[in-house]
Design brief:
The protein is mainly alpha-helical and about 120 residues long. About 80% of the residues lie in helices and about 0% in strands.
Amino acid sequence: MEPTVANPFYFVFFAVPFLAAIAHRKTRGIGYQAALIAGYSVIGWLILFAASWYADRMLATWFESLTTPTLKQVDLFNRDGASKSALLLFGLPMSFAHVCGVWLPCRIGIFVAQKLSK
């Protein structure tokens, strides 16, 4: 049976934009906001690479623990499915979309809450 442990890097990937949007409560210029979104997108992309590395390590540890692997298990271990190439090409845009999809609603909510409290 292949490993089914949850990847902790995915939890970090999903939590970082929420924490970042809440941490930067002060409304600043649009250039500052754009730089933060770009920076957190790159950080998210690097977290996705770490998640890929972690999944590979878990699979390698599992495979090394097998005494006599079956052909199906060997195929599972050798199959990459071009995930590294897809991550290299589409990881940054996916991270950017995720950060924007979280950042903008959080910032709008914070802006509305600030205006209502005045």
